[in-house]
Write a structure and sequence with these properties.
single chain; Rossmann fold; 5-stranded parallel β-sheet; 11% strand; globular; zinc; ATP binding
Amino acid sequence: MITKKKIALCIMSGGMDSTLSAYMMKKRGYEIVALHFNYEQRTQKKELECFHAICDELKVSNRYVLDLDFFAQIGASALTDTNIDVPTGGLEEGIPVTYVPFRNGIFLSMAAAIAEKEGAEAIAIGVVEEDSSGYPDCRESFIESMQQSINLGTKDETNIVIEMPLVHLKKSQIVKQALELEAALHLTWSCYKSEDKACGVCDSCRLRLRGFEEAGAEDPIEYR
């Protein structure tokens, strides 16, 4: 009897969270289809390079890279508008200027089209609600609502589960689990500002460094 393969479409930014999510899905027996977005973010070239390197490490051959240049036209985020400075003064309360309007909603909508085409039963996204920078599109309730909408808007026989295995983890727990799975953390990138050496002072770098410190581990990437 031929066993039908399980396919998971993994949204992979090249960062630590989405990389761990992909490793977790592979461990659960899924064949990985990888999806990456170029959305005119400051570190677009570096993130794409990391995405391909991580896919090589995971031996993922089926990869999609989608270009979304309209995010730059929309602006309103320090990640896509160079006229807005990336904050470096420390983690702040509320929604930061690095929030890209409805980014994960758009990503998941496009991922749904690919997942349906590929016959995937799961979409994996590395959102983190409890220890993130306060992005509204990283909330579990939002992702659950997107799952419902995707299944309402696709074929009757399509039944997609959106997996968010990290949503309730702290960054230190993410680091520990990544080390346990021997995830290629040295190939990941989190910095919002730089593409050569991580700045170490943007929100994303601070969260990452704090996670490694609390996990009692050393971050393998270079910092300024």
